[in-house]
């Protein structure tokens, strides 16, 4: 099985967005878009990533959030239309929200509604009915030997902050899911937007506020792998598990292109065989050639366990 991981697409579409919609925290993001993001994040990169994913015999695609910039309805609709071009379809494409998808509180509900098919939990893994979109998490999607557990850390935060939080209810549910005997023998991959380990997790402005509590759950229940985005760079950390360290892998933005080759748009492919993640490699955007290709030297032989 081949699992592809991308993140932080920041797909740009603000057609019809009047200034009234920007009269809150969004004006900071709008200013950033005009001066920085719109020059470095390219929709064309994701269009070409979609074509590459469709051609690469990928079995499941996972995006760990920030599909938008300002959590505007038209951004979510535009991003949804882009994801709909993936031939695997919503059952085999999972999208969880990031902090930009909750740039303001309205974004939480917009993501929940517009991207509903891409984060619908499997039958038998539903939580009690609630009007609160947060109460639907974590989600569980079992695909063959892969058990994908999606966690939301997406929160509307004060100006000039970008931190996340899992929350007590979700942490307890995550503990229950990872220990559930129905996942025995499956390759349990936990998807989260904010980095849950290392210095980035502990950053009070943009880190994960309850990263220590998250690490405690992983320490008790374990996992084969944890993947995240948010920092717009490739990252490798570990969290102690019950039978050894659990690898934590972050990926750079899937649409970024500037003068830093190590941050150029990319996604990572994990190879899973008989319940074990045996290797992974990165595919990088070549803007001049309008395509993605395997990055030499990025293949890692692994034994992530279960």
Give a verbal description of the structure:
The model is unreliable at 14-31 (pLDDT under 50). The protein has 306 residues and is of the alpha/beta class. α3 (73-83) packs parallel to α4 (106-114). The strands form 2 sheets. Strands 1, 2, 3, 10, 11, 12 and 13 form a 7-stranded mixed β-sheet that branches. A 6-stranded mixed β-sheet has the order 4-5-6-7-9-8, covered by helices on one side. 45% of the residues are buried. 25% of the residues lie in helices and 23% in strands. It is globular, with a radius of gyration of 18 Å. A hairpin with a 4-residue loop joins β11 (276-286) and β12.
How are the SSEs placed, and which strands pair?
Layout: E1 2-6, H1 26-40, H2 43-55, E2 60-63, H3 73-83, E3 93-95, H4 106-114, E4 139-143, E5 146-150, H5 168-179, E6 187-191, H6 198-202, H7 211-221, E7 225-228, E8 235-241, E9 244-250, E10 266-273, E11 276-286, E12 291-294, E13 300-301
Parallel strand pairs: 1-2, 2-3, 5-6, 6-7, 7-9
Antiparallel strand pairs: 1-10, 4-5, 8-9, 10-11, 11-12, 11-13
Helix pairs in contact: 3-4, 5-7
Label the overall shape: globular
Write the CATH fold name: Purple Acid Phosphatase, chain A, domain 2
- State the name of the first-level CATH class: Alpha Beta
Weakly predicted, low-confidence segments: 14-31
Report Rg.
Answer: 18 Å
> How many domains would you count in the coordinates?
1
